[in-house]
Amino acid sequence: xxxxxxxxxxxxxxxxxxxxxxxxxxxxxxxxxxxxxxxxxxxxxxxxxxxxxxxxxxxxxxxxxxxxxxxxxxxxxxxxxxxxxxxxxxxxxxxxxxxxxxxxxxxxxxxxxxxxxxxxxxxxxxxxxxxxxxxxxxxxxxxxxxxxxxxxxxxxxxxxxxxxxxxxxxxxxxxxxxxxxxxxxxxxxxxxxxxxxxxxxxxxxxxxxxxxxxxxxxxxxxxxxxxxxxxxx
Length: 233
What we know:
The protein is of the alpha+beta class. It is built from seven helices and nine strands.
């Protein structure tokens, strides 16, 4: 839509899952565990405001990571949490699973790599300790790299554009999404498009609820109901 979102992270502490954002992962990874291969060109474009729903779209199994975290707790160095981070989209997408201070796994278009961070823990040893982390990182990459998140922010919209956006949203976009079974609530008002800054906050997916098996329905709706068609950009 018209609001930029940050990278996404899930932090596992014991059996609890806490959704967070903004976790920065910058380390260089070295040990090649498994090659994912190149992603296909022409990734499906999705509004950037759907980025927070990326995990729900791909339904990753994080239960296995909780079990792996529990297993790490019995070792010499206790691990307080495990972090799952995604960043970028399309060809630049990366998925990272990290047990801070022990090992870090990252999947990208170059493949899946593992780095041992604990003193005395080699990369190959780290890979042996983190089979579920490697599997989750690869699965997230395989699924989410197929999507390209598009930021459609237009802070310099003219008055004429704002009127066109309002008419499109109320006459086309909201009814189209509703026809696909996507619950988007009440359409925006004319006042919501009184200036470019208020218009940027209009988001049909703001209160989106995704249930089991909703991925095909949502993707079909996004294809048939573009948030901002090319003639309105």
